[in-house]
Amino acid sequence: MTHYSAEQTRHMANAIRALSMDAVQKANSGHPGLPMGAADVATVLFTQFLKFDASDPHWADRDRFILSAGHGSMLLYSLLHLTGYADMTLEQIRNFRQMGAKTAGHPEYGHATGIETTTGPLGQGIANAVGFAIAERHLNAEFGDGLVNHKTYVLAGDGCLMEGISQEAISLAGHLKLRNLIVLWDDNGISIDGKISLSDSTNQTARFAASGWAVSACDGHNPGEIAACLAAAQHADRPVLIACKTTIGYGAPTKAGTSGSHGSPLGPDEIAGARKALGWDYEPFVIPNDVMDAWRKAGSRGAADRAAWAARLAASPKKEEFTRRMSGKLPANFDAVIAGYKQDLAKNPPALATRNASQNALDVINAAVPETIGGSADLTGSNNTKSKELKPLDAHNYAGRYVYYGIREHGMAAAMNGMALHGGVIPYGGTFLVFTDYCRPSIRLSALMGIRVIYVMTHDSIGLGEDGPTHQPVEHVAALRVIPNLAVYRPCDAVETAECWQLALQDATRPSVLALTRQKLKPARLAYSAENLCARGAYEIAPADKKAEVVIFASGSEVEIAIAAKARLDAAGKPTRVVSVPSMENFAAQDKAYQAKVLGTERHRIAIEAGVRTGWDRFIGTDGTFIGMTGFGASAPAEQLYEHFGITAEAAVKAAG
Amino acid sequence: MTHYSAEQTRHMANAIRALSMDAVQKANSGHPGLPMGAADVATVLFTQFLKFDASDPHWADRDRFILSAGHGSMLLYSLLHLTGYADMTLEQIRNFRQMGAKTAGHPEYGHATGIETTTGPLGQGIANAVGFAIAERHLNAEFGDGLVNHKTYVLAGDGCLMEGISQEAISLAGHLKLRNLIVLWDDNGISIDGKISLSDSTNQTARFAASGWAVSACDGHNPGEIAACLAAAQHADRPVLIACKTTIGYGAPTKAGTSGSHGSPLGPDEIAGARKALGWDYEPFVIPNDVMDAWRKAGSRGAADRAAWAARLAASPKKEEFTRRMSGKLPANFDAVIAGYKQDLAKNPPALATRNASQNALDVINAAVPETIGGSADLTGSNNTKSKELKPLDAHNYAGRYVYYGIREHGMAAAMNGMALHGGVIPYGGTFLVFTDYCRPSIRLSALMGIRVIYVMTHDSIGLGEDGPTHQPVEHVAALRVIPNLAVYRPCDAVETAECWQLALQDATRPSVLALTRQKLKPARLAYSAENLCARGAYEIAPADKKAEVVIFASGSEVEIAIAAKARLDAAGKPTRVVSVPSMENFAAQDKAYQAKVLGTERHRIAIEAGVRTGWDRFIGTDGTFIGMTGFGASAPAEQLYEHFGITAEAAVKAAG
What we know:
Chain A is α/β, with parallel strands linked by helices. Chain A folds into 3 domains: about 5-310, 3-Layer(aba) Sandwich (Rossmann fold); about 335-515, Rossmann fold (3-Layer(aba) Sandwich), CATH 3.40.50; about 535-655, Rossmann fold. The termini of chain A are far apart. Chain A is built from 26 helices and 20 strands. In chain A, helix 16 links the parallel strand 9 and strand 10. In chain A, the strands form 5 sheets. A 6-stranded parallel beta sheet of chain A has the order 10-9-11-12-14-13, with helices on both faces. In chain A, strands 1-2-3-7-6 form a 5-stranded parallel beta sheet, with helices on both faces. The first copy, chain A, has a 5-stranded mixed beta sheet with strand order 16-18-17-19-20, covered by helices on one side. The interface between A and B is large, with 109 and 108 residues.
């Protein structure tokens, strides 16, 4: 380990401070306070502890650094630039927050290497980190210390710790004894509204300790103290919180220690004063050679470790499997496995709730795809997320593949994001569809980052019955469909469920939601089809015998109703065809000719979905008949609710009258 | 205080157990475990401590009891029936979870008296309770001990405490030193998936203590211990947690203490065994007279207190104001105040961001409406929620009217629900619109309960600029519009902002979201209109000179763009009219003739909104032109983003070409 004097460390830290205040000033927008306050902590971490090699940002066994306090993005950009990440040029720093730059207002995953996750919405980063740390321990259990053994470091602010999601993350991490997770709390006592004491009096170290964390504290401007805490954390038997007492906007002569330095440019005078106070006598964006050299040396200090790791990988019998998993590619036989399963289904089409169909699909999938890690937010038996194959992943057995997430929907979703970002695993997890509301901020981030996270959301309508309106989603499918880059699937039977699972797993750059029923459904897809019809998003599932006069579009549990209506309409001399719509997103991606063919030109246009109308006008026009919900549900047996709210074959027959 | 022997208490508690297991069995659906486990705790509370009078469920100074673990609804229904709430008949109990019954699967506010809030989504109740307790302390500060001095009791389960929202609630309550808040934790060590130890190892009492709560613990089946803890809690100087160690499904011979008793009927054999074990030798739904008499006595033991309170109110000089506030009626001059403000605006129409226009409106409103309590989740200066009038509401001054909620969007929203439910205050609170995702479960409950909570959501589009896609709502307005019974307002200038505030405040049975801009907008409403045009939801804001060939619909910041496009189209000989759409919900409530008139029949139909298209087809049809977003935003200055994403007057001109 290279040793730096406290003075050297502070001078290197000042490079971060200068770049941060200069970039924010040039952009006339941004947050100088955190980077200036946390610069010493970050410098000690990056120069002495973090295992990385800036020349190979994708090294699988690198330590991960997550800036949970994402508004302090200039801290991360400065670190990446100074340590020598090739794509984080000075030009990028100068273009902070400008159109097309890699240096967005908040760190955006995929914009530049070294950005491990998108942060900004507070609390997400620390909760992602729990997922990173789970993936690390799991892969360690499977591939050994030689290939996987790294830390996940988090820099979190007061905002992250006040968000409720942090409690879910902290308590889950403590329970799982994730000893490679280390959180550095930038304890600066300031938030946007002023002093933290305006709104909070929590003893944070006591709170973490209550969830089984090791805790320590240091002066966040004393490199020796910071290093001592980090050194002690290396060999903990549980996750570690290090409370780093810092001064926000450290160095700014009048704004340091105040909310005035949090989220606005400091202004030329204050910046000049800070340069003087810090002893940083250089022009904006200029880093003197000696400082840059020291930083670049820190950036390459992991090179030998990385080379040794690469040699171990090359010599490992598990090389191929490890490489495949980290690449995100599914096993070569995956499509064949699904095809075989679909053939089995065609032989004896089952009447099942789609949540049960999902469990059956998972029995097949989890046996064939060893990288899946399932789980549920305390609804395992209801979400049917635990296939035969899976053993619990817990502090006693990280090799397990099933996480009992507890009643922590938001924490589960954010942890799954972290697992997907870490790589090597494919996370899926369940709760009731109505509780997508609880994890919506993390679902949005799955979509924004374009990562493969699969949300298994059961009890997807009033069909759940007696639990009543608090548990009955009516607007949720519609509300999920408006999130960009999110695939929302609502399969109608076991075959569609298998197809939707296949699509969700194949799609490495998009998260998916599977909306599944509690109640049993008749099989609708009776003949084997080699093609994955759900990939089309919408397709004719029941053609008309003669030229159709009526078309009925439906999804999920309402396809059964549409098919029943068709039988009655056909018999009444009104030839009817039924289109199943498992995914509006996939349909929107089809070519115009296919869309036009599926949509047709029938005069009677009907859509049935046990939710709100929003989104269906594109299928039936604004004057078509929608059969669904217009308000909240009610508590009663499911069949009575369908009758009560008029979601029936009879209503469809009447509409075509 | 009436004293009961431990034996008497247990026998009374067994009445709850019997009703609960019988009702769940008859419904063949529900959760017997919690009511049977928590029956002793609830019996001690209701017979010895809770201040209430079943004959007057709306008594303003009653203690509130909140069943945060809402799945245990039969506990509450049993208590209401046994203590003699007139509407909670045995017939209702027998119809548990049936269509039209007051006894829904989870307690639904408004279905029966004594249900103080809707619970079921876990963690909401405990967070509502913080709002109840804030309202209580605030009204106490204004109206004195004689009129307002009551407790808020919560019964919470492990699920409530694992949800992240509970941390926000706990830390806020501790910070505010809400000494009349008492949480009874039903510590039964069981959740749906099995033992809590599967998923959690948190030391809950240490966690609460870390946030400044007083904590104690008791055997939840020992009436003496329970009473001792409750007695000690009466005079605390901070919120109190009482950990009550219980056995879930207490009395069930084989299922007690297991997840098997949590969420399913026990079955006839197990019920028979429980009857035997409990010494409860009565038929289903039969309560022996002595037990019923004892319960009814408990239900009326507050009658004298209530009468004394009523006498104090009658004699109080504040009687009229207190009564008005608790009724939810606005001050008589409210409409005149708004009219005066609109007249002032018309004299000199300002160019303002609508968030600033909102602050100006609040300066007027908060001076005229003393029952408003504002706040923000740590974005006070950005949300512009603190008007001149308001002083902080904190532990030193409960008479204040502004809550620094901290970085706790979800906790804020749930607390606002509690404040609105308590009555006597009208809560509003702010964050960025994108973070409606963080509080969506509570927003949904505002809507489901039909209560007046006002969400002030600023930075409502890519117009927020450099903070980038994590902070830019693109789907949020659409996603809020699908929630039933929620008014979503997106005003276009200072006048519309005032009108939307007026509507939000007048609407006592519906929550409202105000989506407001960060960026400055030109005034669009230049002439004074006595009518509140936003009440119509959509209206012609700029008519065509001649018969229109083009119609442009827009909301909020895009109305300015629509008006600019109109000028160019008019000049090019294409007469154009512009319709402002501040609220799709209000427009949907207009009569067909008005709707048809506003929609018109122009060939060129254009809508502009800096969000996704969803919802606009009803205005422009599926073949109209929508100018807005199709994916996530980006980090850059706002004007550049509008250009980049093509949300411009030019695009509208082109579309009409």
